[in-house]
Design a protein that fits this description.
Layout lengths: L5 E5 L6 H12 L2 E4 H10 L7 H12 L5 H17 L4 E4 L5 H15 L4 E7 L2 H10 L2 E2 L23 E2 L6 H24 L3 E6 L4 H14 L1
The structure holds zinc ion.
Length: 223
C-alpha cells in the first residue's frame, strides 16, 4: 500500500508500540494518537476529578484496570474526528483495548478513512520480557521518550536532557494486571480482523526499535 491513513499498533505493555507508532507517524506524515497518554493527561487534570465518575476513573486507572469504554471512546471519537477534519491520518497506539471498544472504533475508522487505508500492526513479545521491560522502563518527563540501554542510574534524557522517571503504570504490581487484561480482553479482538480482510502485519518485538521500524515500513509498502 502507498500511504496508510490509519494505522492501529497493538501489543502487550512493554512491546514498544508507542515508540513504533511515533516513528511511523513521522515517516508517513500521520498524527500519533496514544490512548494511554491521553488518559493519563485526563486523569491528571484536577478539573476532571471534581466529579464522582472522575474520582472512580482515577482509582481504576491507578490500579491498572481498564477504564470504562464509554469514557475512553467518547474522548477518542472526538479527537479522531478533529484529526480527520484537518485532513490528517492517524497512528493509534493503545486503542481499541476490548471487543466492546473495537466494535465501535473500527467501523468509525472505516468511515473516516476507508477500509483499504486501514492497517493493523501487531507486536509480539513474551510475558517475561514484557514484565522485565516494564519494570526497567523510564520515561522522559519533558519529551516523553522512553530510551533503552541506558547506563544504570542514568536519569537524564539523551534526547532533550529532561528528567527521566518511572511511570505510575509501570509498577510491578500493576504490570501483572495490565498483562492479564491484554491477554484476556485485547489480544482476542485482533485475531478477528485478520479474517475480515483487513490489512494485517505481525512483527516480532524482540529486535531493537530501529530494526522493528525498518521491517514495519518494508511490510507496509508491500501490504
Ligand atoms: Zn526528553
Amino acid at each position: 500500500m502507498n500511504d496508510p491513513k490509519a494505522i492501529i499498533v497493538f501489543g502487550p505493555p512493554g512491546s514498544g508500540k508507542t515508540t513504533l507508532a511515533k516513528y511511523l507517524a513521522d515517516k508517513f506524515n500521520l498524527v500519533h494518537y496514544d490512548t494511554g497518554q491521553r488518559i493519563e493527561k485526563y486523569i491528571k487534570n484536577p478539573d476532571n476529578l471534581r466529579t464522582v465518575s472522575g474520582k472512580k476513573e482515577k482509582k481504576l486507572f491507578l490500579h491498572g484496570d481498564l477504564l470504562p469504554a464509554y469514557m475512553v471512546l467518547g474522548m477518542v471519537f472526538k479527537d479522531l474526528k478533529r484529526i480527520a477534519g484537518y485532513g490528517d491520518g492517524v497512528v493509534l497506539s493503545g486503542s481499541p483495548r476490548t471487543e466492546e471498544e473495537a466494535i465501535r472504533l473500527i467501523p468509525f475508522l472505516e468511515k473516516l478513512f476507508g477500509k483499504p487505508n486501514l492497517l493493523f500492526i501487531g507486536l509480539k513479545v513474551s510475558a517475561g520480557e514484557s514484565i522485565k521491560r516494564n519494570s526497567e522502563r523510564l520515561i522522559c518527563s519533558v519529551c516523553g521518550a522512553s530510551p533503552i540501554n541506558l547506563p544504570k542510574g542514568n536519569t537524564t534524557c539523551p534526547i532533550c536532557l529532561g528528567k527521566l522517571e518511572k511511570r505510575g503504570l509501570d509498577k510491578p504490581e500493576i504490570i501483572g494486571v495490565r498483562l492479564k487484561e491484554y491477554k484476556e480482553k485485547t489480544e482476542p479482538v485482533f485475531a478477528g480482523y485478520k479474517k475480515e480482510g483487513f490489512k494485517f502485519i505481525a512483527l516480532d518485538a524482540a529486535p531493537p526499535p530501529y530494526k522493528i521500524f525498518q521491517t514495519a515500513v518494508r511490510k507496509i509498502k508491500a501490504a
